[in-house]
Design a protein that fits this description.
With 109 residues, the chain is of the alpha+beta class. It folds into two domains: 33 residues; 70 residues, no CATH class.
Length: 109
């Protein structure tokens, strides 16, 4: 193996090690990048298949990060899958289901 290739691999390993040290938290636990960029909300939604079909809207706004996702029901239940955390502050547009207080309601903007 040439010295040039070995040098690049060593640099990459050093960068990865430095990144892992930065990812370690004060409590001693380390967290992966995926955990920090994913939203923690992934639950079954209390909206029926009939309500979705009647409204003609299957877009849902995450109550935690406000990301809007097109969600297709599986059987009789609707579940928000794990998704990337929303990074922008641009207002959401269009019809979507939004959780207000304890109930999901259709919102049109």
């Amino acid at each position: 193996m040439s010295a040039k290739i070995w040098s690049r691999r060593s640099e990459s390993r050093e960068k990865i090690a430095a990144f892992e040290r930065l990812a370690a938290h004060s409590d001693g636990a380390s967290y992966s990048v995926r955990e920090t960029t994913r939203c923690s909300f992934a639950e079954v939604i209390e909206v029926t298949l009939f309500q979705i079909e009647d409204a003609g809207v299957s877009r849902f706004e995450c109550p935690t990060c406000l990301a809007v996702r097109e969600i297709k029901p599986k059987g009789e239940r609707v579940k928000v899958p794990s998704h990337p955390r929303r990074m922008t502050t641009t207002p959401n547009q269009g019809s979507r289901w939004v959780k207000r207080e304890i109930a999901w309601k259709l919102f049109d903007s």
